[in-house]
Amino acid sequence: MTTWKEKLAEDIPEDIAGAIDAFAIQLKRKKQGELSDPVFGELRLRMGVYGQRYDNGKREDGLKTQKLNFPSGAILKGPDTLWDAPGMQRIKIPFGGVTADQLDVLADLAEEYSDGILHVTTRQDVQFHFVHIEDSVDIMLRLAAVGITTQEACGNTVRNITACPYAGICREESFDVTPYAKALAKFLLGHPDCRDFGRKFKISFSGCRDNSCGLAHMHDIGFIARKRIVDGKEARGFSVYVGGGLGAVPQQAMLFDAFLPENEIFSITQAIARVFSRFGEKQNRARARLKFLVLKLGIEEFRRIVRAEQSALPGDDYRIPYSGELSEQNDNPPRIGESLNGQLRPKGFETWSRANVLSQKQDGYCAVTIPLPLGDFTPRQARLLADISRNHTDGSLRFTAEQNIVLRWVSKKNLIPLYAALQKAGLDEIGPGTITDITACPGTDTCKLGIASSRGLARVLRAGLLEKYGDLDEAARNLRIKISGCFNSCGQHHIADIGFYGSSRTIGGYKVPHFQILLGGKWENNASSFGLAIGAVPSKRIPEAVDRIAGFFVSNREENESFQAFTKRIGKQGLRDLIEHLMRVPEYFVDPSFYSDWGDPREYSLSDLGIGECAGEVVSTTQFDLSDAEREVFEAQLKLERGEWFEADRLAYKSMITAAKALVKTEYYDVPDDADTIIREFKTRLFDTGLFSDRFAREKFGRYLLSRHAEGPVQPDYEHVRQLIEKAQLFIEASHVCYARLQEKVKTW
């Protein structure tokens, strides 16, 4: 009897089938104890299999609550634990494009193997959570049979290549970047020159310079479509940017080539990959991204080395099959585009249409953007969307970097029945790209690194903002909010108008969830600038902070003033004054609600109150010193704002010294007020002993201080000083965590 796997085999490309077979063998070897954890860890990541955090399998997002029989509160830390409890399966979706048939399969798999949720990521991927590792091979095979892979969805690889979801239909684009993103994704998948990276590698395509959909400036390689006249003829090419990235300390990409001919995207990417493999950091993961190599070499030297590598590339069979694919995407709309004319509009249609519908450059057609709360939708909704796509569009959909879905090639004449179908699916909410369309990473729901509940906060903010959406001023309505559960910027908080990242504070022996507030990032112009933190506010006061910031913006903005220009005009001090009173935390016995996180009634953290008066005095002094450090790093921002580079550098460095001294004083109370002594004692007592490190690998933040002390002032310009301030902020955050750990140490004496 023929098995379902044998039936699928003929539909699976040979190279993909080979990768899945190889993983299945390694999975078996790991189960039999024949493969080490580190080796298997990278192998499974390269096939999209992650460990995850979980809390008895309970989701509180309103979509589906399902109890799974796993140990409560556990955190998966390595490949071995994946045998005991489920993890996460990431699925690679180049440029976010899926067909209706593929979406049906995704729905089936989410229903059969996960907790029944399809989650869209900020890289236009799809993720399943609570997946048993022994089901992963079956999932991979069924996906491969419909042209989807999980290969290199994670790990030290070229991650999913993203692109503008409106590519091919946007009125402002230079040309459709879809075929280029698709071809490059095929070219790089499994490529031998992309197997020896020290860290992940991200690529994006944007059809124009001014809009944000491709986010080219925050990628390792960002391609922005351009046209120019060459020898009297119009030629296509790309502005190429390299070395961008978010993470804990974001960096703007640098211009590598103002106009790269379209037929060179393969060779230049291959050359950059080879240079990254050869010269990129391999030992210190904190400095293993391409951005650090570009900074180390300088853009001129990096360009020289890459060009030399490009000219010396060996013959590459990988490139040949895709050299003829660089042409316009062949979309085939099922019906003629026609206008709505005089059709009767149902209740709510006009508001929805204004907010969610975009006219294409092709007459009579439009694109409909569907907001997905928290990036989640159910198998039922997925199947209904697949049918909607077949009935009303060209049979395809695209996921977006803001965790939404775009339906393209909708004839305007069919907007009303499509709206009715979306209502039936519960997918008719309004406001994509507005203040209610909040991007959030998984945070403490499932991420091993989550510090605070980004999804819980997003859920609360979104509900409150939806209630008042119709009353919001247009300026406030168009603000973007993005939330990360930790400093790593998976929620892209650096490029939001109002961004947040999770942190914690210890108050009176109890831990309190907080979020750092960042203002003035820029989503537009392909993520062209980053916001800076102005202060940490208790999680439970963030909704009030958003109300105050948005309200102040609406009341005090000048005509047509953007939020970025507004924050620059008001200044960091004026903005901090808005939230200063919200930064205070009431004592536990006055209001215990501050000591739990959103969506979780349990205490966020509880420390024993039985601490002696001597310890209490030291705690008070340490907190005071850490507060001084926070003040100094904020003053550094003010100096940065005024262009006073040297003073900003000095204050950022001083803030780290202040925080380090605060920690050293817990063990060496009379430490001299001398930077060399403080650094020596910090390194000996805290850094070298591992007390400054934790599961978030915060030891890298300790290196920020040691490096600045050893190397002296940074280069006196905005970007270098801004990065030092970011590092100082992260060092202080890590100092708060280290201080809490030292308290626990005192308690056990």
Folded structure, characterized:
This protein is α+β, with helices and mostly antiparallel strands. The protein is 40% helix and 15% strand. The protein is built from 22 helices and 23 strands. Strands 16, 17, 18, 19, 20 and 23 form a 6-stranded mixed beta sheet that branches. It has a 5-stranded antiparallel beta sheet with strand order 1-2-5-4-13. The chain starts with a helix and ends with a helix.
Task: Briefly characterize the structure.
The protein is 40% helix and 15% strand.
CATH superfamily of the domain at 169-322: Sulfite Reductase Hemoprotein, domain 1
| Number of helical segments with 4 or more residues | 22
In round numbers, the mean pLDDT is 85
Structural class: alpha+beta
- The count of β-strands is 23
End-to-end span in angstroms?
Answer: 68 Å
What is the CATH top level name of the domain at 169-322? Alpha Beta
Give the CATH topology of the domain at 169-322. Answer: Sulfite Reductase Hemoprotein, domain 1
Described by strand count, sense and barrel closure, the largest sheet is: 6 strands, mixed
Second rung of CATH, namely the architecture of the domain at 169-322: 2-Layer Sandwich
- Helical residue percent? 25-40%
